[in-house]
Amino acid sequence: MTEQILIALEGVGKTFTSAEGAPRRILDKVDFALQKGEIVALLGKSGSGKSTLLRIMAGLVPADGGRASYRARPIDGPAPGVAMVFQSFALFPWLTVQQNVELGLEAQGVPPAEREQRADAVLEMIGLAGFGGALPRELSGGMRQRVGIARALVTNPDVLLMDEAFSALDVLTGETLRNDILDLWDSNQIPTRGIVVVSHNIEEAVMMADRIIILSSDPGRIVSEVAINLPRPRDVDSPRVRALVDQVYGLMTMRPAPLVAAGAVPAPVQPDYRLPDTDIDRIEAVLDLVAQPPFDGRADLPKLAEEAELPDEELFPTYEAMGMLGLSQVESGDIMLTPLGMRYAGADQQERQEIFGRQLLANVPLAALVRERLTADESGTVSEQPFLELLEEHMESDEAKRTLEIAVEWGRYGEVYEYDYHLGRLKLPGLEPK
Ligand SMILES: Nc1ncnc2c1ncn2[C@@H]1O[C@H](COP(=O)(O)OP(=O)(O)OP(=O)(O)O)[C@@H](O)[C@H]1O
């Protein structure tokens, strides 16, 4: 059985040190095995540690807990059989396409004549025959990523790791390239025995993978796994694919851990919880969209994404914010407005702000803490600094700043507190400046 396993992670963890010197656990107790013959997609919210996990598998970042191995040997640096494709293409602009592709082979000490011949063959296979002499800037985005993929494939990798390899491309180009890779894989034109893809796109994951793994955030842990036993190529409109997309949407939009049984009261998040990065206009636009026909209060998430013309990674934080504020909940791939959410949709501006403020205080501990400190203070004003420091104990300083900005924006909208941008101070609403 073990010879079936290409990459094994056992109890893998990773802690980074923030710019302020505070440790932050990014990954915790991750157990994972990439089996021969499978494509695994790794999904999770932004910042959940997907890229870090992939980099650990690639030997680019060391794990600081647990064991990571490739073909039963500990991973202690980049392994020759493992190649990675990056979202940013990572091409050298001053080298030609041919030279960029040959780079990986040069590092392995392959003689020049063989390098040239192998690069020619892989460029032809990936649809870039005749472009060897071009510079990256002379190519379109899709062609540049083909070079990135050719550079990985020329090494005949046993394991291919792809970090959002298609997300910088327009939808159609990304889809074509993805299908080309699946064709090469399914027809055994490449010797690769296992693929791991990190993606933000649920549909892409369902179309590609044999198994989808979902990571939680803060710290990243594997919380769900979905097997996809469907032959490829898959029909994106087939009922099975749609049902799987719905299922994964449902798993991705669950409230943050700890997960609770239906009907139980969810444990409140802590004041140091990173607030979902979305703004009020977007929350209200999505809520209004769900409230209106054809959805009338309940929307299939993929259909809603289509209607909203927004990508999943922008919609997920919005769903999370709406759920956090008690305005909606997600169930089996659908988002449903709660009775309060429906009332919100029909309310005038003033009532909306009142509901928002009440829900904020009841459900967002950071906002409640700010308000509590303000009412306890004689002057009714407090510096933002202690809140930033509290957040920085648990996240990077730019993320702490962003979380506080979101809490400020939400609090101002709900008329729970105000913020003086010049002084960096929070204050109770209606207080005259002194
Ligand atoms: N070298 C590093 N030093 C400190 N913090 C880091 C480092 N690399 C990543 N991080 C932090 O670790 C967290 C996880 O990052 P990672 O890129 O692995 O997440 P991700 O799930 O791939 O995110 P995204 O989907 O946005 O690309 C982030 O908060 C990031 O700021």
TrEMBL record:
<dbReference type="InterPro" id="IPR050166">
    <property type="entry name" value="ABC_transporter_ATP-bind"/>
</dbReference>
<comment type="similarity">
    <text>Belongs to the ABC transporter superfamily.</text>
</comment>
<keyword id="KW-0547">Nucleotide-binding</keyword>
<dbReference type="InterPro" id="IPR003593">
    <property type="entry name" value="AAA+_ATPase"/>
</dbReference>
<keyword id="KW-0472">Membrane</keyword>
<dbReference type="InterPro" id="IPR027417">
    <property type="entry name" value="P-loop_NTPase"/>
</dbReference>
<dbReference type="InterPro" id="IPR017871">
    <property type="entry name" value="ABC_transporter-like_CS"/>
</dbReference>
<dbReference type="Pfam" id="PF09821">
    <property type="entry name" value="AAA_assoc_C"/>
</dbReference>
<dbReference type="InterPro" id="IPR003439">
    <property type="entry name" value="ABC_transporter-like_ATP-bd"/>
</dbReference>
<keyword id="KW-1003">Cell membrane</keyword>
<dbReference type="GO" id="GO:0005524">
    <property type="term" value="F:ATP binding"/>
</dbReference>
<dbReference type="Pfam" id="PF00005">
    <property type="entry name" value="ABC_tran"/>
</dbReference>
<feature type="domain" description="ABC transporter">
    <location>
        <begin position="7"/>
        <end position="242"/>
    </location>
</feature>
<keyword id="KW-0067">ATP-binding</keyword>
<keyword id="KW-0813">Transport</keyword>
<protein>
    <submittedName>
        <fullName>Nitrate/sulfonate/bicarbonate ABC transporter ATP-binding protein</fullName>
    </submittedName>
</protein>
<dbReference type="InterPro" id="IPR018632">
    <property type="entry name" value="AAA-associated_dom_C"/>
</dbReference>
